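<discrete_fold_record>
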Amino acid sequence: MNDLKKIAIVGGTGREGFGLALRWAKAGKSVLIGSRSEEKARAAAEKLNARLGQALAVGVPNSLAAHQADMIVLTVPYQGHDLILQAIREGAQGKIVVEVTVPLAPEDPTQVQMPEMGSVAEETQAFLGPGSPVIGAFHTVSSASLKRLDQPPDHDVLVFGDHLQAKEEVLRLAELIGFRALDAGPLLAGRTIERLPALLVWLNKRYQKKDISFRFTGL
């Protein structure tokens, strides 16, 4: 983990991406907040730095974030996913890409619209090629819990992928910010795990909560 000096959060101006950026910056990581709008990226970085009281984040366009980072985390709406992949493809070569994107149905986020390939993670791996190992993680983590820095997370992170060394890196990165990280299997596991956030949306609405998630027992 020590060689991962910079983490790019592509889509870091959104709630999930900003929450992850906040946690990693607090843990001492250098964070690049990426956005299609450089102005929004800079504003998000300034907000993060002001909250933590030190300059740990920089806001840049997505393509530049991918080039400058040691690891890339994708937290973008699925509707714009293809364009984001095109923007980061060159910069992502030779780097671990953590896929957090969920294919929620735009008209009803309690449902999903799974890609023809089976999952977003598989789609990303096919587009970027074998030189960029794709690992899925953080799909069931609520942005509300990420932003409560005074409270440690009380739920699990499911981490899946085919590249074992890359998966170990992501497991440690999740543990760095207080999660219990679980190896949830190969990249194919995304066909199941990427559906779970839709259930969480329904549960949060039904019980008027913001941070329902999963904690596995018996481990």
